[in-house]
Design a protein that fits this description.
Elements: H1 4-10, E1 15-19, E2 25-28, E3 31-34, E4 43-49, E5 52-57, E6 60-69, E7 76-84, E8 107-109, H2 158-165
Antiparallel strand pairs: 1-4, 2-3, 3-8, 4-5, 5-6, 6-7
Length: 166
């Protein structure tokens, strides 16, 4: 009914785009959430509305989580009740152990991103040598002029040698 550009403008606060890592997880704010391992490195949509967070790939729901938002209504305070959907995007790689959704971590809280610190450059700082190597003497004949190579001549064929002898 509405064009995608209009929907994006209306729903910009509830729809986010993320990429799944090699294990099928995405990072959303300070949380790691499972999407689908078979879609590693793919772009997915994350929808947040009315206490629910939904991870979708091309309009196919991968997983749902019950969420509690912080007072700013933009960041997650609590995540619970993960529900995985059966999808056609299963990984072709077989798993070593078949685990149910309640036997492995589908979400966890991560520490916040820390700003990177740039290393200060100190002027006049010189790296000292680890080991002192004794001075090496020149090899015998190093002071002499280089030996000239003889020019190579083609080897005459046996028939040419026979003609030269006659």
């Amino acid at each position: 009914m509405y064009p995608a550009s209009a929907l994006d403008r209306i729903l910009f606060a509830t729809r986010y785009t993320r990429h799944l890592n090699q294990q099928g997880y995405l990072r959303f704010h300070d949380w790691k959430l499972y999407g689908e391992r078979g879609l590693a490195n793919e772009e997915v949509a994350v929808w947040v509305y009315e206490g629910t967070l939904k991870v979708e790939y091309k309009a196919v729901t991968l997983s749902r989580y019950t969420v509690e938002l912080q007072k700013d209504r933009r960041h997650l305070k609590q995540v619970s009740q993960p529900r995985l959907a059966e999808t056609p995007f299963r990984s072709v790689q077989l798993t070593l152990f078949d685990l149910g959704p309640d036997q492995w971590l589908l979400f966890w809280h991560m520490p916040p991103y820390a700003p990177s610190h740039r290393k200060r450059q100190v002027k006049g700082l010189v790296q000292l040598q680890l080991l002192e190597a004794p001075p090496q003497e020149k090899a015998v004949g190093a002071d002499q002029t280089p030996v000239r190579h003889l020019s190579l001549r083609p080897v005459p064929k046996a028939s040419e040698e026979a003609e030269g002898e006659e």
